[in-house]
Amino acid sequence: xxxxxxxxxxxxxxxxxxxxxxxxxxxxxxxxxxxxxxxxxxxxxxxxxxxxxxxxxxxxxxxxxxxxxxxxxxxxxxxxxxxxxxxxxxxxxxxxxxxxxxxxxxxxxxxxxxxxxxxxxxxxxxxxxxxxxxxxxxxxxxxxxxxxxxxxxxxxxxxxxxxxxxxxxxxxxxxxxxxxxxxxxxxxxxxxxxxxxxxxxxxxxxxxxxxxxxxxxxxxxxxxxxxxxxxxxxxxxxxxxxxxxxxxxxxxxxxxxxxxxxxxxxxxxxxxxxxxxxxxxxxxxxxxxxxxxxxxxxxxxxxxxxxxxxxxxxxxxxxxxxxxxxxxxxxxxxxxxxxxxxxxxxxxxxxxxxxxxxxxxxxxxxxxxxxxxxxxxxxxxxxxxxxxxxxxxxxxxxxxxxxxxxxxxxxxxxxxxxxxxxxxxxxxxxxxxxxxxxxxxxxxxxxxxxxxxxxxxxxxxxxxxxxxxxxxxxxxxxxxxxxxxxxxxxxxxxxxxxxxxxxxxxxxxxxxxxxxxxxxxxxxxxxxxxxxxxxxxxxxxxxxxxxxxxxxxxxxxxxxxxxxxxxxxxxxxxxxxxxxxxxxxxxxxxxxxxxxxxxxxxxx
Length: 604
Description:
The structure is a single chain. This protein has 2 domains: 7-80; 88-601, Methanol Dehydrogenase, Chain A (8 Propeller), CATH 2.140.10. It has 8 helices and 37 strands. Strands 10, 11, 12, 13 and 14 form a 5-stranded antiparallel beta sheet that branches. Strands 1-37-36-35 form a 4-stranded antiparallel beta sheet, with no helix packed on it. α3 packs antiparallel against α5 (69-80). The model is unreliable at 1-14 (pLDDT under 50).
């Protein structure tokens, strides 16, 4: 897909054939000019659907708007090396009446993306339905294909006898847990990267009308009927044109808390773009109606023109940035909400960037913040030779992309456990945000450390480490793998080094880094990886007890072939005796794929 470029230039070339359009406008970025931009050799792995989605509603929406619909389609087919799929090939296998029935005896036992309100990603024995002793017997139960997709990053949620999951083309599926057939589908306006959230109900209550909430990449939040998929409400949660939602909304006590991030970091690569005006934050919605109750930003001050212009003549603004990539954590006792945020987009870096922030649940008032790294300002312009919009700090881009975990120690004290890309893990006092302990366990960096999440049992904090060699300028010895830490002190209990599964020449985009979040059950923890493997480790000593390579073809319930790849951003869920995980993430040089895999003991 296109990555950066001036809209005006594209408009001038609108009538040219797609090959000429690519070589005159796109090649400067996609022939190695921009590290995060997919290289031209990857376009056929991306496929025409993903490229068209990027131009229609994704990160290249601004550039795609300057092209006609037929031009976007012809360019997508030219770059993807194939014709766009027909409507018939995109249809899943729908359930018969028996498997389509909503199960009122199965209210949700997992609480959104983090499994619990506290974001622990720990599943207790009753909810998991599987023991650590049974984990080595896990076998594939069924596989589901996301047609035309090159990534699958929406973590499923379960309830009513179904798995609910989003997809790259914006389709949300309700899949029968037993068979994988589709009960219903709903088409959102853009890619759904988040984990859907299911409203709880009393077991056996046939009068219940539970809602399913989710959000899309264009900044829209949705509520649909969980039984039928019919739309109840839809609301864009902010006015900024670059607004996106990548962190999963959190439901609690009648409200839906939606984190706000953006793709303005990519827009800034255009020298003529007025950089930058987005501020991250959280929006509280009435869960029943979508009405905005409060909206609070990570940076309290509104961005203002600095009076300066970049070398291309575009005005500069500040402060800006600090997007919230993660799902909020709920503190029922203190009636607070916690998030981590990312880097600033402009100079000077805002004091709330790379911070953990506490908000009042009722009003959205910012109560405290703790900044882990100062002076971190970065955007995509920094990747292209320090372009005109690159802030003077020039990074290092060390987000807190993982949600804080609210954890209770054996002595009754509470703490917030936090990890970030710098490979720093630390604990904060939730009362005032003061630092309790801190440890650095890896090299960290632009693609190092904790990316999307950690997990915590009562006695162990699981911290994955990516430590990917991405830019080639990283210093120090990488330590990709899984660390088990003491929640009380941060002391390392054990380290499971990432196995070397990336030596084959057939896997050039493979990387051993542990970027996705882990998921813990009693006695074991599941950890996916960039290399496409899903592994399970023993809690006591980190011994590998089960592993599965997802980077292959799968015959799916809809009768089409799907393929696994890198696993990124979303972890596994464990519920009612099954383990479910998405595989495929073609971005930043990772391995594309389009499959949801469901495992059970002996494949039953």
